[in-house]
Amino acid sequence: MRVVQTVQALREALRPFDSPAFVPTMGNLHAGHLALMQQASQHGDVRVASIFVNRLQFAPNEDFDAYPRTFEPDCAALETAGCDIVFAPKEADLYPQPQTYMVHPPAALADMLEGQYRPGFFIGVSTVVMKLFQCVFQGAKASGTAFFGEKDFQQQLIIRALVQQFEMPIAIQTMATVRDTDGLALSSRNNYLSAAERKEATRLHQCLQTMAGALRAAELTPQAIEEQAMRDLKHHGWRPDYMAVRRRDDLQRPDVGDRALVLLGAAKLGQTRLIDNIPIDL
């Protein structure tokens, strides 16, 4: 496995290949990231991962400086998972000048849910993903593939639309959320949880499962189901941002007769903000 830091070195390393399979990460890898890397190993003729903590998607009061950085163990895990090239730029490599050109996804998709509670987040995500895609795929002789987890459900919808609207020759593959044995969605931010918080953290997934059961029973409106889940989390000491029932294809509120839905939740437990979702077909 080769580790490169600059865009020029990455493009030189990719020159002999036709069709990259790419997994973008911010490092501090867990089994979910590695499952994506293993999935990527079945595509293309070279497997690439990036490790870059992207300042543009962090608000000033968020955890950019504290975000866990575990570069050497990450590289060892990526190599075991089948990675060929790790792109690990410094900020000055990826943003040699201040990034004044930004990608603004449409408000109808990006300013709700995560975008409402993390203003500017999806601008930062879309901008860095566009830039990473240019770095990895620009010289590709055939279409490439990029891999994302469905835990960040809204994010993967936005990236899929970005690729489509800019006519980028990249296929987007997603993988279902990888969970611990007790149901907690794997996340780098789980490392912030105390032992007691880690035990309590499973409640977010349990609330989403309860919402799914209530939808199937059709005894309450989606709004009432959302409100009930919010009350349950608050009762147990959480600070929820949202518990939402949405259409799966565009994250709008469902109409009567909509069957392909997704239940999404975001809440703080102590100082740690967790997100999760469950796709559901009625």
What can you tell me about this protein's structure?
This protein is of the alpha/beta class. It folds into two domains: 2-175, 3-Layer(aba) Sandwich (Rossmann fold); 188-281, Pantoate-beta-alanine ligase, C-terminal domain (Pantoate--beta-alanine Ligase, Chain: A,domain 2, 2-Layer Sandwich). It is 37% helix and 21% strand. It is built from eleven helices and nine strands. The strands form two sheets. Strands 1-4-3-2-5-6 form a six-stranded parallel β-sheet, with helices on both faces. It has a three-stranded antiparallel β-sheet with strand order 7-8-9. It is globular. It starts with a strand and ends with a strand.
Please describe the structure with a list of short key phrases separated by commas or semicolons.
37% helix; Pantoate--beta-alanine Ligase, Chain: A,domain 2; 282 residues; globular; six-stranded parallel sheet; 11 helices; alpha/beta; three-stranded antiparallel sheet; Rossmann fold; 2 domains
Average residue pLDDT = 96
Name given to the CATH architecture of the largest domain: 3-Layer(aba) Sandwich
SSE order in H/E notation?
EHEHEHEHHHHEHEHHHEEE
Q: Would you give the CATH topology of the largest domain?
A: Rossmann fold
Residue share in β-strands: 15-25%
- Judged by helices, strands and strand pairing, the structural class is alpha/beta
Total count of domains: 2
Oligomer state equals: single chain
| CATH class category of the largest domain | Alpha Beta
Distance between the termini: 45 Å
Biggest sheet character? 6 strands, parallel
What is the name of the CATH superfamily of the largest domain? HUPs
Spatial strand arrangement across the major sheet = 1-4-3-2-5-6
Number of helices: 11
